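Sequence in, structure out.
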Amino acid sequence: MRILITLFIILLMSFQVWSQKYLDHLNRLRAAKKYDAIVNIYKKNQKAVAYRTSPKVIEITLEALEATQQHLLAYRLRLNLISHKHRPQQRALISQIKSKRSVSPSNYSDDLKSLYFGAYQNLAQHLQTVAPSNDREKIVNTFNSLKKILEALEYEEDQVESIKEGVDGSFKKQQGQAYKFSKSVFLKQNSWQNKAIFQVAGVDSEILITNMGSCIGGSIGYQNDNYHFFADGCFIFGKGNVQAQNELVYQQSNVPFNAYQFALGASLIVSSSLAEFGVKVPVYFISQELTTPPDSDPECVGGCKIEPPDKSLISISLYGKWPFDQFYFLTEYGRNIKSDLIVWSLGLGYNF
């Protein structure tokens, strides 16, 4: 019997010496702020007795886990402590909540309440750093269960609600930052100016063409609560008026045309109703024929000729989109990049 007692005392003393050396090592790492090393030690020795019985080892480890944003591991350590130190109270509390019986907070220790609150904070911090997934949904359910426990214990009620609001706000922000596919159709009135060359007796003069037409098309893109990146296109049909400049009197009215317009754009979401303001670069491909006056025309003495206008134009436009329900009003105003000629459009669209 004496031998057994002696062996027990030797083992106890050896354990105390080992525990003290272990704690001294953790303290040195803590003083040097080598939190990663402390976390690595914990990961390799999670089942060690010290992580259930030594308040100082637990304190240092929790500090390191939270400093390195290992919030899920900190949560699990606190949950293990609850199971080890307060198992009877834990079971009674969970049973009362599940059976919807009233809970008397005074029957439960402050340490238990503090551990549950710390675990709740750890899960909140973890949830605010992870992307949406099935695993996150499981953690959300656990987080909500901890909230019910803390509400039943009437512990730090204002902070508990504030933490929940913070997590909900983080989820909303993540959802707003995620890009979603967008598509719409529109009908707009398009107008732009173009130039052609009118040659009289070998002398070149510019003539100005102002086109106006209806543009039927659609837009696709990706947008979130802050930005919208899109491409759109439409078929345009209409008529234009031709007016000579300088001293020439040449003109034409209602000259038919058809065109295709394609554009790339980017806009900033400027309101909660998803109104947009941005820039787009439209490219026009135009088919339009001008009539050359006959030689008998007074301006064509000595012969005249019209060089056709450009069949493609590129412009830069300011773009606005103003929604009302599923519909929106759109505006564009810009200029041809080759010349100081105006491009504009007004229209209505529908978002799918």
